[in-house]
Amino acid sequence: MEAQSKPSPPAKDLPGEKAERIIEAMRQSVARRGVAGSTFDHVAREAGVSRGLLHYYFGTKERLLVEVVRREADLRFDALDRQLAEATDADAFLRLLQTSVDEMLRTDPTYVTLTFELFTLANRNEEVAEGFRDLMQRTRKHLADSLRAKEQEGVLHLTVDPESVADVLFSVGDGLTMRVLAEPDRDFGPAISAAIRSLRGLLDDA
Amino acid sequence: MEAQSKPSPPAKDLPGEKAERIIEAMRQSVARRGVAGSTFDHVAREAGVSRGLLHYYFGTKERLLVEVVRREADLRFDALDRQLAEATDADAFLRLLQTSVDEMLRTDPTYVTLTFELFTLANRNEEVAEGFRDLMQRTRKHLADSLRAKEQEGVLHLTVDPESVADVLFSVGDGLTMRVLAEPDRDFGPAISAAIRSLRGLLDDA
DNA sequence: TCTGTCTTTCTGGCCAGCCAGCCAGTAATC
DNA sequence: GATTACTGGCTGGCTGGCCAGAAAGACAGA
């Protein structure tokens, strides 16, 4: 995307730093308060701009949420790439996965909460649905590409196609994270171990 | 707290058939319109009662939603028991799982949509959070008990504790269902096969 | 450098619509 | 006649979107 090169009348791609602040404020607000609770009033205050500016940039709440989805995708790619870079065998790969999940849960479960918020909204809004679909597709493709690369390096030996592995991996990740968030006092160690044990069957035929 | 519990000291549980209709109407409405879109006006009309009756029985929207969660749990138990009853070995068990998931997706993905709706609401309402926690716990326990029974019958040979198996199984189920709903045109056959293949590692050490 | 004009960015008051909850009152039941 | 079951009009509060206009730049000419 082009930065704030010029103010284009038709499509205001990225008006600049204030738009960024708004999107990020909305993202955090949705994770904390939900879509319904994220009023323009709240978000504007947290972004340090006026309410009107949200309409000036994005028009409607839905379009702002689509931008939130887009940003979310970018953030996930960064996180994914950072995590997978250093794996040198299937065990290391799965260990990295586990620690990154642990860390995510301890520090900021925004991702998963936001995923579910956006999914529920997507059921009722085609614009958001399209964005969400794109988020799922791109995330899957991204991980699948990484898996393919790891396979060529000899780190992994996939027993099924990489896209399917990505689907299963993200699915069990989302589902478990939801459960951990729902029952924070329960020890999910055994469940996470079981998940990893079952995933190994897809990553390594050794 | 006990505003509407006057009529029957022994049990405020079931005011009757109208309350049932309200709960079921709310359940379906939440799955279709989301929590925010499920106004008392809509739900009352669909249940064939007046708006005021919803307040008369449940007081607040949250308390009505807690009843929805409770009902959801009951429905799930029925479905689970029906599905697992006839499995005679691990393969049959997993095949049953696959067909029941397929059928659920084709006919009525209410379950999963509702799960996510309630989860997002639970983030903001302690009453609902408690109900949701209970839903997760009871569902897990229920499947774990079935798994234990199947193990004693010699149908399955679990490689980890049944509760963890249940967690992983439901997690991957929820996550995949969400993805299927988000991308209805994509063929998830390979992904579902991959999921089942990975789950086999937990169900059968043969 | 100053000044005036035009454009873009940004503000916040306003409004119409919606909703949960309240409550006064009516119907049903005993 | 009294208690319980039920109704629906009302309201206060909130929200997204609109818009008139204020600030902030941009630019030209003197």
Automatic annotation (TrEMBL), chains A, B:
It comes from the Bacteria. It holds the Pfam family TetR_C_6. Residues 39-58 bind DNA. Residues 16-76 form the HTH tetR-type domain. Keywords: DNA-binding, Repressor, Transcription, Transcription regulation. InterPro entries: BetI_C, Homeodomain-like_sf, HTH_TetR, Tet_transcr_reg_TetR-rel_C_sf. The keyword Amino-acid biosynthesis does not apply. This is TetR/AcrR family transcriptional regulator. It comes from Svornostia abyssi.
